[in-house]
Fold each of these.
Amino acid sequence: MYEPIRTKSVHRMADDDDQFPHRTREEELRIQLAGHLSALLAVTDELGDETAAERIAEQVARLRGAPPARHAGLSGAGRTELHRRAHTLAGRALVVAASRADTAAAILAAERMDAHTAALEAAPLDQRRAVGAH
């Protein structure tokens, strides 16, 4: 009823797995958290919040083992949109920090979420609607 397989399998054998470097779950989460915090740092730099940017840069340096590259260009987005982006990035960082039980990063991410929420609530109503309409 079924024909036998006549060609070699395209799948690797389990014994071949040691030929390629593998990362642990902890390493993957560390890399992911550093990436989210680096993106948050870029937006924070664009917003001009030096105090928060320095705190974020410290966490990125701790995770990567080297100081982060700082954002040099501007996106041209309005402040309300930047606060929305920063809030989203801080939320992503918070989820990953919680997954890896990184208390320092989780506290920082939660504080940044609160700060950006407050900034969005303080924005004039017409700016909030205009950003949400896009």
Note: The chain is about 65% helix and 0% strand.
Amino acid sequence: MQSSQLDYLPILMQAILAIGFVVGMIVLSSKLGPKRSSKIKDANFECGIESLGNARIPFSVKYFLVAILFVLFDVEVIFLYPWAVNFKELGIEGMVKMVVFMLLLLVGFFYIIKKKALEWE
């Protein structure tokens, strides 16, 4: 079955319509919306608390490391769901591949435990 460029015309039209709608709503809301500013409204705050000190304080690298490890292992779990749904169709070959996958996952997990990446100081 061959496709021509005309087959992509509805997709292009929908993309133009969606982008036009978003841009139009942003422009329309900026033109029609209220423009009230005051000293209190323009003041910086975080969670309703006055900000104190410099906002550019350094964070511990451990915080980012734990966040990255969480995302990594969370993404790994995403691969388990399709495998579990198609478990019977995949057969023994799918089981072997998942065992290898889980072993690699466990090796990484034990590595970060050995490096004490999840321990707070």
Note: Helices lie at 9-32, 61-78, 80-85, 87-114.
Amino acid sequence: MDRTVIAYVIYLVVSVALTVWVARTLSRNGKVFLADVLHGNEKLADAVNHLLVVGFYLVNLGFVALYLSGDDTITDTRGVFEALSTKLGVVLLVLGVMHLANVYVLNRIRRRGVMEREQVPPVPPQGWAAPSARA
């Protein structure tokens, strides 16, 4: 088997495994965060979480597939390692950027929700109070 094909197979297996692992980790740990962002609405949090995971898979697996082809033919074992380190490094960076983008957007949504909750008075008004007379 050609070394280029071996590098492609290793790249695909490792990239897909990393993408699945990161998506599952984000999904599992993101549920609590989403429930807080969405004011305890668990059903909506699960739906948003699922949509985020599907989008994460689509973007990252699409990138992995597009980044598969290489310009050079790999002729030796050293070339396999060099090609894999470059490709997997870029995939890891893209996964990290996607994760940070998701956290940033969700944190902005959470901050907006916290500010809205702070604008509502903790106790409803009891009635009208007459202005006090100044001396």
Note: The mean pLDDT is 82.
